[in-house]
């Protein structure tokens, strides 16, 4: 069976005859005139008959044959064969590695080097986005990075080839304030954004394109932050806004399931754990609420300037590798098992990071949780001092806390000892607005940061 179509095979055969006729040795001096020519004609006729090519067609003026086409085709074939061999070898290596990982299970994936990894002081990749970066998020499984800018543009970069975004669109008319990424059924990737244009929008990444599927309207001022999570069989989105409200939406139909007002001023940040939401506000307080009922349960005060970010420290499950992930704030506590966490972290414009213990609400059967009137205030456990300007964002990775701020630094803290273990100075040429790293599984050793200088820095082992 021929590997080439008939027309290409005929063209290749013509190139062979053309090459032989042009470069075959001619009859030398001393030979009988005409005899060399006769020998050459016999050879050419035999070769043309074997290749099933008409010799007269070689002199066809309408389709001239390039005599150098055969060497070029041969060199191309050799290069392609070499590349195929290299790719087959690489595929075989990846297949063997994947089989080993599947045999050993998920625990071996989170090996000790991954669990204890912290970013180096020098970034591996730099991506220029052309506008201040307001939020960055890594895809949970693939080497993809989602970037939002202050001009309303949403982009997706492949970290294996980051020269150009694989997907880019003008998601909002004004600046994007935050993004979140969630894997749905069948590894469908959803990206949700909030913006200064008062909208929250949901996109699906499919065929390397971001397709809008839902626009959530209802806030009356800047929407500050968003969280997307799975609640039973439903996919929900929670947003907070400068209109002092928090709203919970159903992505399937776009309905607002709940709207409540946990603060008396701009709600800047929120984090979700099951039926509970922790919020931070311009009123300098952090509050715990039960979102299905909208009831406030407890609050913490002590910051002297607005809170920029709040993070829940989830408790470890019994199946987690507690040796390397455990810190004194996420240890399994049966008393807090129903709540799912016992401590939260806040970052503020007063240059400090604070870790709080949350008081337990009263759990009443068949009724929403009730505030404990004897313990309504968060307990301040420790204050992490080190930043010299506003602290903008937080990430938790195992026993490490990573923070960034307007002092242009990224700092890594050990949550087991509350000590500062690394400072990345001058991470950006401007304010460091956002950071993100893997928190579940802790397999990949990667972190991304976005700055007011319009650049994204990617830190890889």
UniProtKB/TrEMBL annotation:
One cellular component term (GO) for this entry is: transferase complex
- The residues forming a coiled coil are 77-104
Query: Looking at the Swiss-Prot or TrEMBL record, what is one Pfam family this protein matches?
Result: WD40
Q: Which parts are the WD repeats?
A: 216-259, 384-423
Keyword list, A-Z: Cell cycle, Cell division, Coiled coil, Cytoplasm, Cytoskeleton, Microtubule, Mitosis, Repeat, Transport, WD repeat
The Gene Ontology biological process terms listed for this entry are: cell division; establishment of mitotic spindle orientation; microtubule sliding
Entries under InterPro entries matching the protein:
Dynein_regulator_LIS1, LIS1_N, WD40/YVTN_repeat-like_dom_sf, WD40_PAC1, WD40_repeat_CS, WD40_repeat_dom_sf, WD40_rpt
Statement: the UniProt record of this protein carries the keyword Membrane: no
Where it sits in the cell: the answer is: Cytoplasm, Cytoskeleton; Cytoplasm, Cytoskeleton, Spindle pole
Q: Which GO molecular function annotations are given, in alphabetical order?
A: dynein complex binding
Principal localisation:
cytoplasm
Say if the entry is tagged with keyword Heme: no
Described by its record, this protein's role is as follows: Positively regulates the activity of the minus-end directed microtubule motor protein dynein. Plays a central role in positioning the mitotic spindle at the bud neck during cell division. Targets cytoplasmic dynein to microtubule plus ends, thereby promoting dynein-mediated microtubule sliding along the bud cortex and consequently the movement of the mitotic spindle to the bud neck.
**What's the subunit arrangement here?**
Self-associates. Interacts with NDL1 and dynein.
The Swiss-Prot or TrEMBL record describes its family as follows: Belongs to the WD repeat LIS1/nudF family.
Entry protein name: Nuclear distribution protein PAC1
Native source species: Lachancea meyersii CBS 8951
Gene that specifies this protein: PAC1
């Amino acid at each position: 069976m021929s590997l080439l179509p008939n027309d290409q095979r005929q063209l290749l055969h013509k190139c062979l005859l053309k090459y032989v006729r042009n470069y075959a040795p001619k009859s030398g001096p001393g030979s009988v005139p005409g005899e060399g020519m006769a020998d050459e004609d016999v050879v050419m006729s035999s070769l043309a008959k074997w290749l099933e090519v008409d010799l007269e067609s070689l002199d066809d003026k309408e389709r001239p044959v390039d005599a150098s086409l055969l060497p070029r085709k041969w060199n191309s074939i050799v290069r392609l064969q070499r590349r195929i061999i290299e790719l087959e070898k690489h595929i075989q290596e990846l297949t063997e590695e994947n089989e080993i990982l599947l045999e050993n299970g998920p625990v071996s994936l989170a090996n000790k080097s991954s669990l204890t990894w912290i970013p180096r002081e020098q970034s591996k990749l730099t991506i220029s986005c052309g506008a201040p970066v307001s939020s960055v998020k890594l895809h949970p499984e693939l080497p993809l990075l989602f970037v939002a800018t202050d001009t309303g543009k949403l982009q997706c970069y492949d970290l294996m080839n980051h020269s150009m975004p694989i997907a880019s669109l003008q998601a909002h008319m004004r600046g994007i304030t935050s993004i979140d990424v969630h894997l749905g059924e069948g590894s469908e990737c959803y990206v949700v954004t909030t913006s200064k244009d008062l909208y929250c929008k949901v996109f699906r990444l499919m065929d390397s394109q971001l397709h809008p599927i839902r626009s959530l309207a209802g806030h009356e001022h800047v929407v500050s932050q968003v969280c997307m999570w799975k609640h039973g069989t439903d996919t929900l989105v929670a947003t907070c806004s400068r209109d002092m409200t928090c709203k919970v939406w159903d992505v399937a139909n776009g309905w607002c399931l709940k709207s409540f007002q946990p603060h008396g001023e701009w709600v800047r940040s929120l984090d979700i754990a099951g039926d509970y939401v922790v919020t931070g506000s311009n009123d300098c307080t952090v509050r715990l609420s039960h979102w299905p009922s909208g009831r406030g349960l407890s609050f913490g005060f002590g910051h002297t300037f607005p809170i920029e970010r709040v993070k829940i420290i989830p408790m470890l499950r019994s199946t987690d590798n507690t040796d390397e992930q455990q810190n004194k704030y996420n240890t399994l506590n049966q008393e807090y098992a129903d709540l799912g966490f016992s401590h939260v972290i806040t970052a503020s414009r007063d240059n400090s990071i604070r870790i709080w213990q949350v008081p337990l609400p009263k759990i009443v059967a068949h009724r929403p949780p009730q505030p404990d009137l004897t313990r309504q205030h968060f307990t301040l456990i420790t204050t992490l001092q080190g930043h010299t300007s506003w602290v903008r964002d937080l990430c938790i990775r195992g026993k490490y806390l990573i923070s960034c701020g307007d002092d242009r630094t990224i700092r890594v803290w050990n949550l087991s000892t509350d000590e500062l273990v690394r400072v990345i100075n001058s991470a950006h040429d401007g304010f460091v607005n956002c950071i993100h790293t893997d928190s579940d599984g802790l397999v990949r050793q990667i972190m991304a940061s976005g700055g007011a200088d319009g650049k994204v820095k990617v830190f890889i082992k």
